[in-house]
Amino acid sequence: MDIIESKIPGVQILFIEHVPFPLTEFDLKKGKWVDESNEALREAVQKLKKKGYKNFHYLKADGLIGEDGESTVDGEHFTDLGFYRFAEGVYPMVKKLIKRAER
Predict the structure, then answer these.
(1) pLDDT for 7-27, tens place per residue?
(2) Cβ-count burial 12-35 (b if 16+ within 10 Å, e if not)
(3) Cα 54 from Cα 4, distance rounded (Å)
(4) pTM attached to this predicted model
(5) Where in the chain are the domains?
(6) For residue range 59-90, what is the model confidence (pLDDT) as tens digits?
(7) Which of 50, 75, 98, 103 is the most buried (most CB within 10 A)?
């Protein structure tokens, strides 16, 4: 973070969790990997907070692609609808961060 902030002062950084893909309900190994990855990301974010960094943000992925199973081709890889829902879910935060960076 020090390097990034020194090169681009005021940069806003967004961390986004791994999406809990429908496949993870059946592939327990993959589900465990997603859970462990998200936990590691949460821990890293907490460490950054403790160090006093302020220009980073965290977005949970729950519900980000919907829950009807139509957002992925094979339970893991996004369809057009999956990418659309992901973009719609991320957009409000990105818009907010762009406004914040413009100040």
Answers:
(1) 888 788 999 999 988 888 888
(2) beeebbebbbbbbeeeeebeeebe
(3) 13
(4) 0.83
(5) 9-98
(6) 999 889 998 989 999 989 999 999 999 999 99
(7) 75
